[in-house]
Design a protein that fits this description.
Low-confidence stretches: 1-5
Strand content: 25-35%
Number of helices: 9
Bound molecules: zinc ion
Strand order of the largest sheet: 1-2-6-3-7-18
Length: about 400
Amino acid sequence: MTSGTDDILEHPAIRLLSELLRRPSVTPDDAGCQDILIERLAGLGFNCETMQFGDVTNLWARRGDSGPVLCFAGHTDVVPPGADSEWETDPFEPVIREGQLYGRGSADMKSGIAAMIVALEEFLAEYPNHAGSLALLITSDEEGRARDGTLKVIEVLQERNEPIDWCVLGEPSSESELGDIIRIGRRGSLSGILTVRGIQGHVAYPQLADNPIGRFAPVLADLHTVEWDQGNEFFPPTSFQVVDIRAGIGFPNVTPGELNARFNFRYSTEWDHYRLKERVRGIFDAHDIDYELDWHLSGEPFLTKPGRLIDAVSQAVTEQTGRTPELSTGGGTSDGRFISPAGADVVELGPVNASIHKVNENVGVDEVVALTAMYRRIMEILLAQVVPDP
Ligand SMILES: [Zn+2]
């Protein structure tokens, strides 16, 4: 790291972040990041459990036996840096330029993790006898298939009857300034993998063939004209998009025998995947078409209802920035989809997401420091003293 004269560069969250950025933890390799966290957490009185599933390393750390449980969650893995030559500096050697800290994972989301750890240290120094429990759920497989990560840890916790009441996910939720947006839910994501069967033939003799493109065309038109829903208070309208469609053997006088397509729904809480699939099948079955449809569900939509967690996170942001955050359900999926169904309220609060997954990924040094203060404040609001549930 290039050194500066600014005190802010000596902030413990910046130092921890730099240490994490030096570990090339490309999914699913944790590359020792969680060992660094465990060392700090064990010193704070956390009971740390490493949960290894396949090549994925997960950490469940908890301090306290009673409820409510406030859990900070995130991932140590990062997407590959891509072509090194396109980076202005080494993606795994953090560098600060003009107040921005550069490195793969700086925004998504090692800054969130560094802020959590330092916030925990600061909070516990002041409130060693806090109410409830503090926890940390970290995975090394959020950017990948996500099968052996947060999902599996939640399964273990559910088997043990160990609930999470409130979860703050440190994903980069902000759009142009830290805390301008907090995510209180996410849309569901459902993909359809379609095969339409026909009979290949000579283009001049259509009566002897069965062109699957012609069969699918009216179905596709219907899928595009349906108004799936109008959205609701917290969700934009459900969207249907075809992402891939292919047929044809690449020869001008041969019609294809098969068509393959892939489409995706980003859907609101007006639907669940069962009803959505049923509706799609209904549209196909209203046509004369020989098809096979497989599905891949990435996650059901979830929504955290107004309550103490959203209030606490909003308050912490407002105190720090002077602004009221927008409550949003936009963006892609996150591991919140696994944590929320277990009964936890989930809110995502993290740095600006403008550079995530890009070359020259970066985060504002002052953002990391402010995020640390916000996380600390959220703990203070929720756990500094026992407040009875309404
Ligand atoms: Zn992320």
